[in-house]
Amino acid sequence: MSGILLSADAKTFIIGTTLISIVAFWFSVGAFKVIELTGIFKKYKIWSNKRTKKGLQLKAVKLIILNEIFVQTPALVVSFYMFEYLGLTMTMGNYPGVFLFIFQIIIFMLIEDTMFYWIHRLLHQKTLFRKIHHIHHRFNINSAVASQYAHPVEFLICDLVPVITGPALLLILGLPVHIITLWIWMVIRIWESVDAHSGYNLPFWFPHKLIYGGGSIPHDLHHSKNKGSFATFFEHWDKLFKTHVK
């Protein structure tokens, strides 16, 4: 097994995916911290006169690092074997065309959004909320770092599994997926989540919000009201099942 773990494909997937996900997350969190400290986009701040609870951001950082080490790393090792079996393309140079790339990213977004909606909605049931999801909702006033502040179980089933399900399903259907597409998709999802929890409604950060909705405002309402608006990228499930918070 150690020989397999040291193979070129294993190192490319596990080390590359780990570094990309960690850098993408902490870079975007750091960017919003700079925005908060300098006040350069103050006019886009959703709650101009409110701040997160003192010390909560530090607690979030500690739990996120533990989740990265003890949940994300083992999950990526398992994901490597799954994607290797399913035939993920890991050779550099054999990149997908632009239209295939865009099509796959949209499919990934729709699948992730659907899974997240139903899992997130389930976590708001009283027992699961009390035992698992309440940790994430300690942020009733959002901050970028809150996006991955979650119970380890929630971090796995709500933050990680829906992200890899789309690529896995396309591979099961016999469609090619390149590791570069997977990496870019992960960065998009991480940045979307950070944006949703940032406390800022930056229209140029995820421009699809201008057309379709979603983003930081409905998710900020979700945290402040502790109900509804369960989806990530889009709002069709919330509107269809009348869980959209106005």
Considering DSSP H and I runs of 4 or more, what fraction of the residues is helical?
55-70%
- The rounded distance between the terminal residues' Cα atoms is 52 Å
Q: What count of helical segments does DSSP give?
A: 10
Name the shape in a single word: globular
- Tally of discrete structural domains: 1
Structural class: mainly alpha
How would you sum up the major sheet? none
| Whole-number mean pLDDT | 91
Task: Describe what this molecule looks like in 3D.
With 246 residues, this protein is mainly α. The protein starts with a helix and ends in a 6-residue tail after the last helix.
Topology diagram in text:
Layout: H1 2-5, H2 8-38, H3 56-86, H4 98-123, H5 126-131, H6 152-172, H7 179-197, H8 208-212, H9 216-225, H10 236-240
Helix pairs in contact: 2-3, 2-7, 3-6, 4-6
Compose a concise summary of this entry.
The chain has 246 residues and is an all-alpha fold.
Q: Which tags fit this structure?
A:
single chain; globular; 246 residues; mainly alpha
